[in-house]
User: Fold these one by one.
Assistant:
Number 1:
Amino acid sequence: MTDTVTTKDGVSIYFKDWGPKDAQPIVFHHGWPLSADDWDTQMLFFLSKGYRVVAHDRRGHGRSTQVSEGHDMDHYAADASAVAEYLDLRNSVHIGHSTGGGEVARYVARFGEPQGRVAKAVLVSAVPPLMVKTEGNPGGTPIGVFDGLRAALAANRAQFFLDLASGPFYGFNRQGAKVSQAVIDNWWRQGMMGSAKAHYEGIKAFSETDQTEDLKAISVPTLVLQGDDDQIVPYADASLLQAKLLKNSTLKVYAGFPHGMLTTHADVINPDLLAFVQS
């Protein structure tokens, strides 16, 4: 079996599929602008517990095709569905981080639940229901912030990614933070593997996609996790609203944890993920 699937619009999506094929699948959806490699710690952890673990690179990211079109939440969800259908994944738990959380919400609402493939979902530091500030979302982040991200990316993507990983993404800009240069380097490596166009257009996808209806449509048990020191996705406008909109949610907010807490605090998060999967 190949490690890529070709979507209906001809995009090659790279994926990893490890572990026993008859075990329950745990499917991981990465954040912007990263790749499936961002889940290494979680994939090895769940593999050691006997699960089948699957993760793909979003279109334009990692090892998937650097296609010109389709850098929006609808295509992200359809691409995730292409992987699930190709591997015929059933009774799956879909776990999404940041932009990947938006991908999970749209995938589960539009594909996973209607097809009967999903048992549970997990949103970690996730972008829904809507990041940008609007009349209907007064607690959101002003559009100027996202315009600034686009400008920085277009001017010097390599420096922009280095600054993001070295500072707010992992909370490495906080006093007393235990900074890991290897974590910063790995974030930068994953980001630079992807397409500048996909990353540029992905900012609109993660910030301006209203996913209120996606969240309302999900009925499977959903775990919502976020740190209250998330400097990328403010938790009051994200996880707290997610928990209210979802029909069947469990919310856990971690004091002082950053946006990239899956990496910096895997020792805490992984057992919590496992407990939910097994519950």
Note: Residues 6 and 12 are 4 Å apart (CA to CA).
Number 2:
Amino acid sequence: MSDRENQLGDQGLANLAIDPDVLEKELAAEQLSDPLDEIDCDQEVDETLKAARDCDAGLQLLQSGPENRLQGLRVFCEHRDPRAVPLLLPLLQESCPIVRMSAVYALGRNPSPVAVEPLLNLLQADSNGYVRKAVAWSLGNHSDGPVLTPLVKALQTDIAAVRLWASVSLAEAGGKTTAKADLAAGQLLLSLAIDSEPVVRSNCIWALAQLIDQLVEPRRTEVVEALVNALMHDAESSVRDEARVALEQLENPEILERLQALIDEGFLS
């Protein structure tokens, strides 16, 4: 601040008539922290404490008998706590498919290297499709493990519900390296071309869009051409819409120009 500004400020203060009561209230208010900051802080602390208490209760429920297991499993489908993993793993062998399925989802929420092999065994051998579907989802959160090839096989051969989640998890499992991305993209491209379920084809498109930055030529061009082909020729509008969104999100000038040409020529609206 300049000398001139200081002088004007001093003169202005000298001419103020200050009400002592008002000044006292203002000074007291200045000692308080921002109420919004206090609310945010309190909410964060409350949520952390609540999660910790929920996890403690969940651990007790998992250990207090079969009648309470599902309640405990619901806790760890929502919260992460490494203490739960040793209690969840034995539940993968339970005779009740709901318990197995819930344990799988909880392990997806609480990924651990020791869970990979038991989950892969379920994906291969469990007779219940809902359990295998849960495994296909959960393995996407265990992408550092050897899950890529089993997910490819599930996308090739399993029921539609499992294929749906296998395609999504392949985007996670294939995103680690260029080689894995290429392997995952190969099966996703095949399934996009031949799978009978529109929702599976749509998920294949989504997964390919997630992987494309990891791919090298000529695979990258193959993916783009497959997306254009789906946009132009797939029988289901939902799949065509997914392909268009994926192509637009690539933000590649040549691809955007190509889409505009299709619009201009009347092939797209």
Note: Residues 1-18 have pLDDT under 50 and may be disordered.
